[in-house]
Each structure stands twice: as structure tokens, then as C-alpha cells.
From TrEMBL:
The keyword S-adenosyl-L-methionine does not apply. It comes from Rotaria socialis. InterPro entries: PyrdxlP-dep_Trfase, PyrdxlP-dep_Trfase_small. This is Aminotransferase class V domain-containing protein. Keywords: Membrane, Transmembrane, Transmembrane helix. The chain crosses the membrane at residues 24-46. Signal peptide: none annotated. SUPFAM superfamilies: PLP-dependent transferases (SSF53383).
Length: 284
């Protein structure tokens, strides 16, 4: 009954916090020492870039790599969220300008950039999920917290809608590509999902070229292949610019592809590089 459900919820909460309470890059929002349900909101920080991964990017990546659906960006209790994110009223007012069309600050027009809206990713561990399912979800979340930044190079974004998509997707009719019901067929008399069609249209080639029985291991293999793939195939010069006015650039809180691609390319180019086999003697 209810007691069994509550006991299971408590165990899931403890399992989550035992793993992530002091995690270096995953920041859990809200208190960890009070009674709560197995619903968790978090941010992922990238130390080398000193910015966070955008919550919508995390949402898409968990889906594309692991088939895990989570929520991102939506919050009903706005003032509480501002408190959790440590955003004061003045800063909140500045972010509000970016999500309000045709808003002016008195010095010039502020473009509508939905991508600038602060937010977080949220998921739950259900009391009826098996131990194997719970471990899979937590392993996937931890992988994104550790290696998710590398996958930024495989994606691009729409500043106005805050939608992230794989670079291999058509730039036309973006939103329609996220309607998963179009993959459903009843031609055999039963409901079936065309996974091959979905993979071919919705995921980068680097992802579809790897297949095993363990999605976590697949993700690790993909991450290892990203440097070579980016070095040979990816250029972020044509990515849509954020067009943030100079006076507001310090308010950019999330990483974008161009933040990571140069590092990936430079690091890969240096692999196997050789040094000069001798050093001249300056004293002679």
C-alpha cells in the first residue's frame, strides 16, 4: 500500500543523493536532507568552459543516446526557481528582456532569444521502476554530467526557440522532427515503431554507426570517436550566432558548440605530433 510506496520512494531518493550529492559537475537543486519524492532537478556545469549545459540540450541528448525522456525549462513556481538558481530580481529582469519580444532597455533593442532563459532539467525515479531501470537512468545521467559537453559539437541550436537538434537533421521544419508518433505504423494490424526510420532521420551518423546491447557503452564509444569525427567533418562557423548585445554577454550561462569545437580539434591535432629531434646549443 501507501507505506510500501513511500518506503520505495525514500530508498530511491537516498540512492540518488548517495551518488550525486557531492558530484563535481552535476548540481542538484533543492534540499537533500528533507523528506521528498523521487523527483530531481539539476544543472550540469562544464569546468573547462565555465558554463552550464543548456537544459534543452541535456533533454535532447538523454533522448538521443539513451531513449530517456525528461523535462526541461518548464517551472510553475517561478520565484522559487529564481531562489534555487540564486538569481536576484535585477538579473531576472535582464533575462526577461530576452524572452519578451520587442522589449527595449532604453539603449537599444534586445533581441528575442529564448535560449537565454535560465532553467534546469528534471526527471523522476518511479517507485515501480526495477532496480535495473533505475541504475540505467542514473548511469545515463552521470554520463551526461561527465561527457555530455563533448556532444555539443554534434548539435546546433535555434536561439529564438531554444530547440537543439543534431547537425544531420534538416534545418527546415525543425519542430515536426520531434513528433515521435510519425514513427508509428499499424500496417501489420498492431502498433509498431519504425526504429530504423527514426534513427536515420533523428540522430547523427556518428551515433547510428554504433550498435550494441548496452547504450551506456555505445555512448562511451561515440564519445571516444567524437574528436576524429569533429576534426574531419564539423565546422561551427555557420552556426547561428547568439547576437547578444555586448553589455549582456556576461549573462550567457550556457555552453554552445563553438565553445568546445576548437578545444576538441586542437587536442586531436596534437595526438601523435612530434617535436624537433634536436635542440641547438645556444651557448656556442
Amino acid at each position: 500500500g501507501c507505506h510500501t510506496i513511500e518506503t520505495r520512494e525514500d530508498a530511491l531518493v537516498e540512492k540518488f543523493f548517495a551518488r550525486f550529492r557531492n558530484h563535481l559537475t552535476l548540481f542538484v537543486l533543492g534540499p537533500s536532507t528533507v523528506a521528498r519524492l523521487g523527483i530531481f532537478s539539476f544543472l550540469i556545469y562544464v569546468p573547462s568552459i565555465k558554463k552550464c549545459l543548456h537544459h534543452n540540450f541535456i533533454c535532447v541528448l538523454l533522448n538521443d543516446l539513451f531513449g530517456i525522456q525528461v523535462r526541461s525549462g518548464c517551472s510553475c513556481a517561478g520565484p522559487y526557481v529564481l531562489d534555487l538558481l540564486n538569481i536576484n530580481d535585477e538579473t531576472a529582469g535582464i533575462y526577461a528582456k530576452f524572452i519578451t519580444a520587442n522589449e527595449k532597455d532604453g539603449l537599444g533593442e534586445i533581441p528575442k532569444i529564448e535560449l537565454m532563459k535560465p532553467g534546469f532539467t528534471r526527471f523522476n525515479l518511479s517507485y515501480f521502476a526495477s532496480g535495473k531501470e533505475v541504475d540505467y537512468i542514473l548511469n545515463a545521467v552521470e554520463f551526461i554530467a561527465t561527457d555530455g559537453w563533448k556532444f555539443l559539437s554534434l548539435y546546433t541550436y535555434n536561439p529564438e526557440t531554444a530547440v537543439w537538434r543534431a547537425r544531420s537533421k534538416s534545418s527546415q521544419n525543425n519542430l515536426s522532427q520531434y513528433h515521435s508518433l510519425r514513427m508509428i505504423s499499424y500496417t501489420t494490424g498492431t502498433m509498431e515503431e519504425n526504429l530504423e526510420q527514426q534513427q536515420n532521420s533523428d540522430t547523427p551518423p556518428l551515433i547510428t554507426n554504433i550498435s550494441s546491447d548496452d547504450p551506456i557503452e555505445d555512448a562511451r564509444l561515440i564519445a571516444n570517436k567524437i574528436p576524429k569525427y569533429v576534426y574531419e567533418n564539423i565546422c561551427s562557423l555557420k552556426d547561428t550566432p547568439l547576437n547578444i548585445p555586448d553589455k549582456y554577454k556576461d549573462f550567457i550561462w550556457f555552453a554552445i558548440p563553438k565553445d568546445v569545437i576548437p578545444k576538441i580539434v586542437i587536442d586531436f591535432a596534437q595526438i601523435g605530433s612530434t617535436t624537433v629531434p634536436f635542440r641547438p646549443n645556444r651557448d656556442n
